Amino acid sequence: MGYALTPIAVRLDDVKAKLGSGDARLCAQVAAELEDEAEEIDELAQEAAEDRDVEPLTLRDALSHLIMGTDREAQLGFVYGYAFAFLCQHLGETLDNAHWSALASSSNFGTQVDAALAYRGVDETLSVSMLLARGAPLQLPPIDDFPSFGYLSNVEVQRALAVLDPAQLASVTDRRTRDALSELRGWLVHCAAAGQDLLCFYC
Question: What gap in Å lies between CA 140 and CA 153, rounded to an integer?
Answer without folding.
Answer: 18
